Amino acid sequence: MAQISDIRSAPTPEFIESVRARFPTEAEIDRVLTRKMKARAGPGYSPLSLDQVVEGVRSLIASEHGGDFAISNPRWLQGGASKIQIAFELDWTGPDGGARRTDSLALRMQPPESIVETSRRREFEVIKAMDGVIPVPPCFWIDPDGSHLPYPSILYGFVEGVSRPSKAPVTKVSGVGTNFGPELRPVLARQFVEALTRIHKPSEAQLAQMPSFDKVETGSTDAMLRQLNWWRRVWEEDRPCDLPLVDVAYRWLVENAVPLDHVSVVHGDFRAGNFLYSEESQKITAWLDWELAVLGDRHQDLCWATGGHFGHYSEDGTTFLACGLLPAEEMFELYEKLSGLTVDPVRLKYFRVLNDFMSTVHMLASAWRVARLGKTHQDVTVAWLSMIGNGIAGHLAATLEEVI
Question: Over the stretch 267-280, which tens digit does the pLDDT of each residue have?
Answer without folding.
Answer: 999 999 999 999 99
